[in-house]
Amino acid sequence: MLMEQETIKILYIGVFIVMGISLVFVVGQWISTKKAAYVWLIGHLIVLSITIIRWVSFLSNANMQQSHMAAENNSLFIGSNAVLWAIGMFLLLIGIYKLDKTAKTGI
């Protein structure tokens, strides 16, 4: 995949900035409210960050010579990222459910 030389570096910086701000915000909410549901959201952000960084890494290595198993390796990589994404979404849904549950009961 052809890209400008600095594109991957800018993608990494952008991911770190956005996910860092998100993590600081959610941790701040967790500290101020003491609601355990925010731990699930923190887990979501961590898994999502790992997945995004893996995708950017995959994009940056797309120009490399690949072995005779390139299609299989790429499929495995995409599948493992899909599983990580699904785990992250599951953590997000648990966090949202627990926040909604505590909001209704007043805990």
Automatic annotation (TrEMBL):
Annotated transmembrane regions: 12-31, 37-56, 76-97
Keyword annotations from UniProtKB, A to Z: Membrane, Transmembrane, Transmembrane helix
Name the record gives this protein: Uncharacterized protein
Organism whose genome encodes this protein: Desulfofundulus thermobenzoicus
